[in-house]
Design brief:
Blueprint (H helix, E strand, L loop, with lengths): L7 H13 L2 H8 L3 H15 L4 E4 L2 E4 L1 H22 L1 E2 L2 E2 L1 E8 H8 L3 H7 L3 E8 L12 E6 L6 E8 L2 E4 L2 H4 L13 E4 L4 H8 L11 E2 L2 H9 L4 E5 L4 H6 L14 E7 L6 H12 L7
Parallel strand pairs: 5-6, 5-7, 10-11, 10-12
Antiparallel strand pairs: 1-2, 3-4, 7-13, 8-13, 9-12
Length: about 290
């Protein structure tokens, strides 16, 4: 049967009535009368030559044909609505799937997202946070901001900036820290990168203690633990500027260790779209994001 023979209003009336199992509720949703919905469904049934509902004394029930048609129409109308929602200002908005390390998102990106949207309203940004372990292809990401050395197989990486690690802790703990050796008596919170504290202690010519205890896969979670007084965390201080200015975290020592940088990455096999190019250009134009 040719699609042109099927009236759109009748298909919409059936879909609404089938979801609600009520002509009355479908009419309220579509802002037409119950009788209009009933007539549209009857018209569709006549065109198809099959009943789509069983009319019961107290409501409706779908026939086998109706059950087969409902999910197809629901998905089709959802996709139409989703596409129409992407039109804005005479231009089709383009979806950009971005993955990013949670610390970078909260510490740097979120305060600037309004600026990006104002500059590029055609980009429909979808943001997914992670703990630096990301699969660009498997997660359907166009771009990912991650922390490391920039060497990821099959990936193009643009260096943004470094974020050296420094000890951060709650004010109560900071008050009893006079020199780096004082840290040897404190609980040291650690990430899954086991070399970070040893490298920091080496800056002060100290041997790192045998660190035991919780291991965090997220700097955000570790920072929260530090703010609650659970211990001293080694964190990228520039990503926690708000917490430092508010006094929730303090930095007892200036020494910091560089373990990597933030990078904007994409698969080499992924062609760059206008939305990807717009985000890359905007990101690299930020004064704070130039490679340092």
């Amino acid at each position: 049967m040719a699609l042109t023979n099927l009236p759109l209003n009748a298909l919409r009336a059936f879909e609404a009535a089938a979801r609600n199992l009520s002509f009355t509720r479908a009419g309220l949703e579509l802002r037409v009368t119950q009788a209009a919905v009933s007539q549209q469904v009857k018209t569709l049934e006549e065109i198809l030559g099959v009943p789509l509902f069983r009319r019961l004394p107290r409501g409706l029930a779908l026939t086998a044909e109706g059950e087969a048609l409902l999910p197809v129409l629901t998905d089709a109308f959802r996709r139409i609505a989703s596409t129409l929602d992407r039109f804005e200002g005479g231009r089709l908005r383009e979806v950009l799937m971005l993955g990013a390390v949670g610390t970078f998102v909260t510490g740097w990106l979120l305060p600037r997202l309004a600026e990006f949207r104002a500059a590029h309203p055609f980009v429909d940004l979808r943001l997914m946070t992670n703990n630096n372990r990301v699969d660009l292809a498997g997660e359907g990401l166009d771009l990912a901001i991650r922390f490391g050395d920039g060497a990821w197989h099959g990936t193009e990486a643009l260096r943004l900036f470094t974020a050296p690690l420094a000890p951060l802790c709650a004010p109560a703990i900071a008050r009893r820290l006079r020199q780096p050796a004082d840290l040897l008596r404190e609980t040291l919170l650690r990430s899954y990168r086991m070399d970070e504290w040893p490298r920091w202690f080496a800056l002060s010519d100290l041997a790192a203690p045998n660190i035991r205890g919780f291991v965090f896969d997220s700097s955000l979670t570790m920072a929260e633990a530090a703010m609650q007084g659970a211990g001293v965390a080694l964190l990228p201080a520039r990503m926690f500027d708000r917490e430092l200015r508010a006094g929730r975290l303090q930095r007892p020592f200036a020494a910091e260790v560089e373990t990597g940088a933030y990078w904007l990455t994409r698969l080499k096999s992924r062609a760059e779209t206008p939305a990807m190019a717009a985000f890359r250009t905007w990101l690299l134009a930020q004064p704070e994001a130039v490679a340092d």
